[in-house]
Amino acid sequence: MKRTAEVVLSIISIVFNVIALGLVIFLTMSSQFVSNDPLIEEELRNNMYGSELTEADIDMALNSTQDIITFMTTIGWILVAVIIITIILTIIGTIKINKSTKTAGVLFIISAILSGIISLPGILLIIAAILCFVRKPKNSTLQSADHELI
């Protein structure tokens, strides 16, 4: 049985995940550059001098900002790893779809959970998994009997 719908849905999901991967890598690398840029820290410090903050408050605010950026960078790299795993599982599921539809369906469900069930790639993968489990191959003896009657 042809599994064109499942293959198309999984390929579209892979494309969206690759786009998301590029975006997350870009944002993570940008935040790393921002956190290491002394000009940005100096600009933040100059903007805070105009307020009624003390030097200790300014240093504490800058350290907190640095900690938040470091935390976000770490989360970004974790997201990169999860998206890569999702892409790999989806590619494996797409390759195995004609040989073992149940295995492909399970891989699609795992990929959907990793990519986020409410995201567009996750929804596409859930639909592909449902199609893998629900669509049954046509019985070849019935199909050949139908051709003989015509």
UniProtKB/TrEMBL annotation:
Q: Where are the transmembrane segments?
A: 7-29, 68-92, 104-131
Pfam families tied to this protein: DUF4064
According to the entry, every stretch annotated as the DUF4064 domain falls at 2-117
Q: Which UniProt keywords apply?
A: Membrane, Transmembrane, Transmembrane helix
Record-given protein name: DUF4064 domain-containing protein
